[in-house]
Specification:
This protein has helices at residues 19-27, 55-69, 80-91, 113-121, 137-144, 150-157, 165-172, 206-215, 238-250; strands spanning 4-8, 31-33, 74-78, 96-100, 132-133, 163-164, 193-198, 220-225. With 251 residues, the chain is α/β, with parallel strands linked by helices. Strand 1 (4-8), helix 1 and strand 2 (31-33) form a beta-alpha-beta unit.
Length: 251
């Protein structure tokens, strides 16, 4: 039977983010599911309700998808999608998990001054936690899409959509979050995990990703990808990363 693979996109993105990865996975016979997170298929003008959508809402939508699939699936999550994959792995029976430049769950401290400063800079947007946050081109191009050519940066950024202020708060300001939305019960995660981070990633640094993998002890393998940044799903050399993930899943 074909193994189901659920590819979970990150913040400010949509199902389109995994367009490159679909081809090699489909060619290996995996059955692909590319959900768009709630309100991420509304273009640049989502309903105001996006602003107060929680990580817990995204996770429960994805749990419903997993229940429909009905058998343990492979989860591949990028950035915020990598955090959602961790949350799901603690709640459902998952076959295996590939975390690409994952966001950290509750309790994992940022590893770099840049990550700390990024979290603080959010407050410049005022009470950002209850409104949709618009994608900022200079932030995306400097921090996420920095390895792409100028032309490709523009093409990818044109597809970016607003993100939930609340979900962003729950990830980047977890210490202030009374609900502990981003918490993951590491002891409940039983599936094998491959955790990959680019050596040049400033959004979710290799140090942070290493700390994430460490939480899952013997279940997790961490690898730092030399010369890569945050957009592991589409920056130059993504084919090798996808191949590597496929090889790991084959074992």
């Amino acid at each position: 039977t074909k193994v189901n693979v659920v590819m979970i996109h990150g913040a400010f993105c949509g199902a389109w983010a995994f367009e490159h990865w679909c081809k090699p996975f489909a060619a290996r016979g995996y059955k692909l599911h590319l959900p768009a997170l709630r309100f991420h298929d509304c273009g640049r003008n989502p309903p105001p309700a996006l602003g107060t959508t929680s990580l817990l809402d995204y996770a429960s939508d994805l749990e419903r998808l997993l229940d429909e699939i009905g058998e343990p699936a492979v989860l591949i999550g990028h950035s915020m999608g990598g955090l959602l994959a961790q949350m799901l792995s603690a709640r459902r029976k998952i076959a295996a998990c590939v975390l690409l430049a994952p966001s950290a769950p509750y309790g994992v401290l940022p590893a770099t001054p840049f990550e700390i400063a990024s979290a603080q800079a959010l407050y410049l947007a005022g009470d950002f936690w209850n409104k949709p946050l618009k994608p900022e081109r200079w932030i995306a191009e400097t921090n996420a899409l920095d390895m792409l050519s100028e032309k490709d940066r523009a093409t990818v950024f044109a597809q970016f959509v607003p993100e939930s202020g609340l979900a962003t708060f729950e990830i980047m300001q977890w210490a202030q979050d009374a609900k502990r939305a981003s918490a993951v019960d590491a002891a409940a995660v039983k599936c094998p995990i491959l955790c990959l981070a680019g050596s040049r990633d400033r959004v979710n640094s290799p140090g942070t990703a290493r700390s994430i993998a460490r939480r899952y002890r013997d279940h997790a393998t961490f690898e730092e990808l030399h010369g890569h940044s945050h957009w592991l799903i589409g920056e130059p050399g993504w084919e090798k990363i996808a191949d590597h993930a496929l090889g790991w899943l084959d074992n």
